[in-house]
Specification:
alpha/beta, Rossmann fold, UDP N-Acetylglucosamine Acyltransferase, domain 1, 8-stranded mixed β-sheet, binds coenzyme A
Length: 207
């Protein structure tokens, strides 16, 4: 990473704290927030400055920008808003994660501490690879999906766009999970999951 001084983060919630912390650990020297909660009585978010509304982010001359919003539609909307203004949407990788040099990560991706991404895996834009998630070789994770803490994906798993793989779930090698899918906490996916479904349990079944 070069010239990483001031990072502007859209979204001052709990997930934003993880993003700010990850950014600092990755070498950004200053993190500032933009959020609708900005106003005369709220100008900080925990340990960081809250500088303005999201739509004011471009006026603050940051070296990079990131969207820290859990809702995947909003994450996409603000990511596209930044890119549409020619602003640099960065990817943040915690130094205590392990990302293969043969993995491909698009812009706006977050990789939190303890995560592992193995060779020839492709992570599309705006994906969250959360704390201690493990994504093995040759996987494809679609844009704006969220791989929650402690999940384990075996090799060659495919996940569509805007899907949410709940905390601690496990996915068998080669399984194909569609778009807009929710996999419940602790589920074990052993077969393909169609678009739009919510599945829970072991083996994971539609709710
Ligand atoms: C699957 C999930 C989305 C369902 O949420 P919901 O629609 O609000 O469902 P409810 O809590 O109303 O539960 C409905 C039923 O499903 C069961 N259920 C819910 N989640 C379940 C899960 N993960 N595994 C097994 N059963 C589950 C409930 O016990 C309940 O059963 P009942 O009708 O017999 O009482 C949610 O429970 C879940 O697992 N979310 C993942 C959370 C997560 O990973 N957070 C990490 C954030 S970083």
């Amino acid at each position: 990473m070069s010239e990483c001084f001031k990072l502007g983060v859209i979204g001052a919630g709990g997930h934003g704290k993880v993003v700010a912390d990850t950014a600092e650990r990755a070498g950004w020297s200053e993190v500032v927030f933009f959020d609708p909660r900005f106003g005369p009585i709220q100008q900080t978010h925990a340990h960081w400055q809250l500088l303005g509304l999201p739509e004011e982010a471009h006026a603050h001359d940051c070296d990079g920008y990131f969207v820290a919003i859990g809702n995947s539609q909003a994450r996409q909307q603000w990511g596209e808003w930044l890119l549409g203004r020619g602003l640099p949407l960065v990817t943040l990788i915690d130094p205590d994660s392990s990302v293969s040099q043969y993995a491909m990560l698009e812009s706006g991706v977050l990789v939190v501490a303890g995560a592992v991404i193995n060779a020839d895996t492709h992570i599309a834009k705006g994906v969250i690879v959360n704390t201690r998630a493990a994504i093995d070789h040759d996987c494809r994770i679609g844009a704006y999906s969220h791989v929650c803490p402690g999940t384990a994906l075996a090799g060659s798993v495919t996940v569509g766009k805007h899907s949410w793989l709940g905390i601690g779930c496990q996915v068998r090698q080669g399984a194909s999970i569609g778009s807009n899918v929710t996999v419940g906490a602790g589920a074990t996916v052993v077969s393909d999951i169609q678009d739009g479904l919510t599945v829970v349990g072991t083996p994971a079944r539609s709710q």
